[in-house]
């Protein structure tokens, strides 16, 4: 089953508030893009198998978010959607 992240593909926006100061978080993209110099170039599913999270089994895309209000970072999961078959 092929799945895609609706946020990464521009179908929806990630709207969440900071757990500490309750200001809106800024989505900084996939967490896996920050896991090493070459991580943005590695296959997404490959990174999910070695990142220590349960995101591959649960079909989640982990996004790194930043709060401009208090400076904290949070990792938020986004549920991936099943990709429709080609027509």
Write the layout of secondary structure elements.
Layout: E1 3-4, E2 26-30, H1 44-48, H2 55-58, E3 60-66, E4 73-79, E5 81-82
Antiparallel strand pairs: 1-5, 2-3, 3-4
Strand percentage: 25-35%
Q: Tell me roughly what share of residues is in helical segments.
A: 10-25%
Q: How far apart lie the N and C ends? A: 16 Å
Low-confidence stretches: none
How many helices? 2
Shape: globular
The tally of structural domains comes to: 1
Q: Based on helices, strands and strand pairing, what is the structural class? A: mainly beta
Q: Kindly provide the radius of gyration, computed on alpha-carbon positions and rounded to a whole number of angstroms.
A: 14 Å
Widest β-sheet, arrangement of strands: 2-3-4
The H/E string reads EEHHEEE
Residue-averaged pLDDT: 90
Describe the structure.
The protein is mainly beta and 87 residues long. Helices cover 10% and strands 26% of the residues. It has one domain (3-82). It has helices spanning 44-48, 55-58, and strands at residues 3-4, 26-30, 60-66, 73-79, 81-82. The two termini are 16 Å apart.
């Amino acid at each position: 089953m092929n799945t895609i992240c609706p946020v990464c593909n521009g179908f929806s926006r990630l709207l969440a508030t900071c757990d500490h100061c309750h200001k809106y978080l800024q989505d900084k993209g996939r967490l896996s893009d920050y896991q090493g110099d070459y991580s943005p170039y590695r296959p997404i599913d490959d990174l999910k198998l070695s990142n220590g999270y349960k995101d591959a089994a649960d079909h989640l895309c982990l996004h790194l978010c930043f709060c401009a209000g208090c400076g904290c970072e949070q990792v938020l999961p986004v549920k991936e959607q099943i990709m429709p078959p080609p027509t």
